[in-house]
Amino acid sequence: MAVSRWMPRFIGPLVLVAILLTLDVGDVAVALRRVDLMALAGACLAVLPTVPFRSSRWRMLVEAGGAELGGMEALHAYAFSIVAGAATPGRLGELVKVGHLRNRGVPASTALLSVSLDRLFDVVFLIVVGAGAVVAVSGLRSPWLIAAASGGAALSCGAVIAIVLSERGSAVPLAILTRLVPARWSQRVARLLESTAAQAKKLPRRTLTMCGVLTALTWLATYFAVYLCAVGLRLDVPFLDVCGVTAVSSLVTFLPISILGLGTRDAALIALLAPYGVAASDAVALSALYLGITLWVVLACAYSLLTPAARAWKRGWT
After folding, report:
1. Is 3 exposed, middle or buried (0-12, 13-18, 19+ CB in 10 A)?
2. 20 to 30 Å CA-CA from 188: which of 40, 80, 268, 300?
3. Which of 176, 215, 216, 218 is CA-nearest to residue 193?
4. Is the distance from CB of 308 to CB of 280 less than 8 angstroms?
């Protein structure tokens, strides 16, 4: 049963195998060998601030819920969640953050809300930027159309969130979620979700605005890092276009059909970069570098295994 639950995760790697079978792997190797090491080093440096940006956003959400969380403590716990998320199937990293807060006596609703919103900010930002990217890649490069697509996506996301948080709108997802858990837990889950939704409505606008700014800084740093990888591969793609392409390719990695985005990110980059005249082998090489800087962040976060955050998590499981 446990094995079958993770079977969909192998769809992405199988897609990657299929892509490599249709390509000359030697061309991918040639592209990687010609990468400018200075540009790659710049990408590795550019992506590092994303961790403190994200941990600061999470800390603000936790404190908005009435709990206290120190800056360094938030950084250590977030870094440890990144390592756990990369080393395990699924999104165990989110569970690590919830567990850390629960070990400190933070109410379950506050912990769940902070982690859920932390993820939601990333998803909404990627959808908004990705919507504009889809319009640009389709050939309709009018700034007005791109802005309209991104604005429409932002309004749509806001409307969906508002409906879900409303009393009537929350009834449907609440009923679905309570049916997905064992009957003995359904009432407890229902109370937890209702309490979480109630807290979400009380979040200060200033907190949400600052979290939005930190989200933008996080992804701009990521986009710049990917752009430097593209420059290192000598790909002629403008920075703003790289931002959009990266947003869409990052969004598809959230689908639960891959491990670390293997296959799904490659397929997205091949399709999105084709209109720019980028060969499929070069797109796969860029995907490999994107994966490389992602793993570099995981490696940089490995220090968290020696922090109190990791030790507290281990004690909770022993």
Report:
1. exposed
2. 80
3. 176
4. no
Q: How far apart are the first and last CA of the chain?
A: 25
As a residue count, the chain comes to 318
Specify whether the CB–CB gap between 62 and 105 falls below 8 A. no
- pLDDT, tens digit, 9 for 90 and up, residues 210-259: 988 999 999 999 999 999 999 999 999 988 888 888 888 888 887 777 77
Distance, in Å, from the CA atom of 92 to the CA atom of 316, rounded to the nearest integer, reads 15
Q: How confident is the model at residue 1 (pLDDT cuts 50, 70, 90)?
A: very low
Q: Is 301 helix (H, G, I), strand (E, B) or coil?
A: helix
Residues in contact with 219: Cβ distance below 8 Å, sequence separation at least 6, in sequence order: 122, 125, 126, 129, 247
The dihedral through the CA atoms of 34, 39, 41, 47 has a sign that is negative
The stretches of the chain forming alpha helices (DSSP H) are 2-6, 11-22, 25-33, 37-47, 50-64, 71-87, 92-103, 108-137, 143-165, 171-180, 183-201, 205-232, 239-252, 264-273, 280-300, 308-317
Q: Max alpha carbon distance in the chain (Å)?
A: 59
d(CA 297, CA 282): 23
Q: How far apart are CA 241 and CA 237, in angstroms?
A: 7
Is there a contact between 29 and 279 (Cβ–Cβ < 8 Å)? no
Is the CB of residue 153 less than 8 Å from the CB of residue 127?
Answer: yes
